[in-house]
Design a protein that fits this description.
single chain, alpha/beta, Rossmann fold, 2 domains, six-stranded mixed β-sheet, two-stranded antiparallel sheet, 16 helices, 10 strands, elongated
C-alpha cells in the first residue's frame, strides 16, 4: 500500500502473481457490490463482461505508460502494481461514496478522488519502474483525469448482484399474467382509496395523490413516497393520501401508476373529500418530454400521460381545488392545459428544458431535494417554498455547469386565497421535516 520500491529480485511479476491479484480484485468487487445491493439481489454473471472490458482498458493504459517509460520497460510490472493497490483504492472510494457530506457534494467528491488518484498514479509508476520520469508520470495522470469521461461514455454495467425481477419478467413475458395484473388494478385502487379518511365539516383539508410514472430508476418511487411524507407534515394529509407507483422490483405494495388508474383514483377520492371545499395535492414524478410524462413499468402496455389527459382526469373527477406538482423534464408543458383560477401548478422545469437528478442511486431528484426536503418544511407558504427551491436549484445547476431548468409556478387568484386558508389551518405542520424513504 505504501508503494515502496522493492529489491528487484523480490518484486515478483510472474503469471501466478497476476492471476492471484485478478482473483483478489474480483472478490473485493463482488463483496462491495453485494454489501450495497438489495437484500434479495441475486448473482448476475453478465456483470463480468463489463468488469472484463474495463480491465482490458486498464491493461491498455498500463501498456501505453510502459511504452513511454522505455521500449524495454516491463508492462507486467506496472499491471501487477496497479492490481496490488486496486483493492485498497476501490474500498476507500466505495466507502467514501457513502459519506453523506461527500454524497451531497458530487463535484467536490469527484475532484478529491481524481486528485488522490493522480498522486497515486505517480507513485504507482515509481513503484513499478524506479525513479519517476516526467513523460510516463504525466501520461499516467492524464489517463486518470480522463477516466471519468471514458467510464461515462462506455457506461458498462458491472453489477454482480442484481435484484430479481421474476414477477415483472413473468408478467411481461406471459400475456395472461400481464392481463391478470392489469385486470386487478381497479379493485386495488378502490381498496386503497377506501382506507382514506373521509372529509369532515369545518376548515378545508388536503388530500394527496402521488404518481411515480417510470419504474426505472427507483428514484421516482422514492420521490413520490417522500412527497407523501412532506405534504403530510405540511398539511396533515397522512391519512388522506394515495400512492400510484411503478416500481421495477415491486408490483404488490401499490397500485400501478397508469392513466386509467389515475383517473379512477381521482374519481373515487372525490367521493371521500368535499370537492367544493377540500384541496387535492397531486404530485407526479417521472421522465418527461415535450409530449408529457413517461409512464412505464417493464413492457406492460401503458399509455403515456399527456397534458390534456391530465386535465381531463382532473375535470372528470369534479375536484375543484388543485395543487399540481410535476417533477420531470419539460414539465412546463402541462401549465397551459392545467391552469385555472382554482389551480396552483409547480413544475421542476419549463416547457423547453430538462431537470436533473434522476440517475440510479439518487434518493430524490434535484427538484425534490430543493422543494420537498429543503424549502417546503421551512416556508410559510407554497409560493415562498417555490421561491427558495428555485434559487437552490439554480445554484446547484450553475455549480454543476448544467443548463438551467427554470422551474415554473402558476397560482390562480382564487387558489391563492384557498391556499392561505389551508395553510392557516395547519400552522403547526410547518417546519417538520420528513424522513427519506429507505428501500
Amino acid at each position: 500500500m505504501a508503494l515502496r520500491r522493492r529489491w528487484p529480485p523480490r518484486f515478483a511479476v510472474g503469471f501466478d502473481q497476476l492471476a492471484a491479484l485478478l482473483v483478489v480484485n474480483l472478490a473485493v468487487w463482488a463483496l462491495l457490490d453485494r454489501l450495497h445491493a438489495e437484500p434479495h439481489a441475486g448473482f448476475a454473471p453478465d456483470g463480468l463482461f463489463g468488469w472484463a472490458c474495463y480491465l482490458l482498458l486498464a491493461h491498455l493504459a498500463c501498456a501505453l505508460v510502459a511504452r513511454v517509460e522505455s521500449r524495454a520497460a516491463p508492462t507486467r510490472a506496472l499491471i501487477v502494481t496497479v492490481l496490488a493497490v486496486a483493492p485498497f483504492v476501490l474500498t476507500l472510494l466505495w466507502l467514501a461514496g457513502d459519506v453523506p457530506w461527500l454524497a451531497a457534494r458530487p463535484v467536490l467528491a469527484t475532484v478529491l478522488a481524481l486528485a488522490y488518484l493522480a498522486v497515486l498514479a505517480v507513485r504507482v509508476v515509481g513503484a513499478a519502474f524506479g525513479p519517476v520520469r516526467a513523460a510516463p508520470a504525466v501520461l499516467a495522470v492524464a489517463l486518470v483525469l480522463a477516466s471519468p469521461w471514458a467510464l461515462a461514455w462506455l457506461d458498462l454495467d458491472t453489477r454482480l448482484w442484481v435484484p430479481p425481477e421474476a414477477e415483472e419478467a413473468q408478467a411481461d413475458d406471459d400475456p395472461a399474467a400481464a392481463e391478470a395484473l392489469l385486470y386487478d388494478q381497479p379493485a386495488r385502487i378502490a381498496a386503497v382509496v377506501g382506507r382514506v379518511t373521509p372529509s369532515q365539516p369545518g376548515a378545508p383539508r388536503a388530500y394527496f395523490v402521488g404518481f411515480a410514472g417510470d419504474s426505472d430508476p427507483e428514484v421516482f418511487s422514492r420521490e413520490a413516497q417522500f412527497a407523501r411524507q412532506a405534504f403530510a407534515a405540511r398539511f396533515g394529509s397522512a391519512d388522506r393520501s394515495v400512492l400510484l407507483i411503478n416500481d421495477a422490483g415491486d408490483r404488490d405494495s401499490w397500485p400501478l401508476a397508469s392513466l386509467s388508474g389515475l383517473g379512477q383514483a381521482l374519481t373515487l377520492l372525490a367521493r371521500r373529500m368535499d370537492p367544493e371545499q377540500d384541496v387535492l395535492v397531486l404530485f407526479l414524478t417521472s421522465h418527461g418530454s415535450e409530449d408529457g410524462l413517461e409512464v412505464r413499468n417493464g413492457t406492460l402496455p401503458l399509455a403515456q400521460l399527456e397534458p390534456e389527459d391530465l386535465r381531463q382526469a382532473l375535470d372528470e373527477s369534479g375536484i375543484r381545488w388543485r395543487v399540481v406538482v410535476i417533477s420531470a423534464c419539460y414539465a412546463g408543458v402541462f401549465i397551459d392545459a392545467l391552469k385555472s383560477e382554482t389551480t396552483a401548478i409547480v413544475t421542476a422545469s419549463d416547457a423547453t428544458h430538462s431537470s436533473f437528478g434522476c440517475q440510479e442511486g439518487s434518493d430524490l431528484t434535484w427538484f425534490g431535494e430543493a422543494f420537498l426536503r429543503e424549502a417546503l418544511p421551512a416556508s410559510d407558504s407554497l409560493e415562498e417554498a417555490f421561491g427558495k427551491a428555485a434559487k437552490l436549484i439554480a445554484q446547484r445547476e450553475a455549480s454543476e455547469h448544467e443548463a438551467h431548468s427554470n422551474p415554473q409556478l402558476y397560482v390562480g387568484e382564487l387558489m391563492r386565497h384557498k391556499l392561505r386558508e389551508l395553510e392557516s389551518s395547519h400552522p403547526a405542520a410547518a417546519g417538520v421535516s420528513p424522513v427519506i424513504v429507505a428501500r
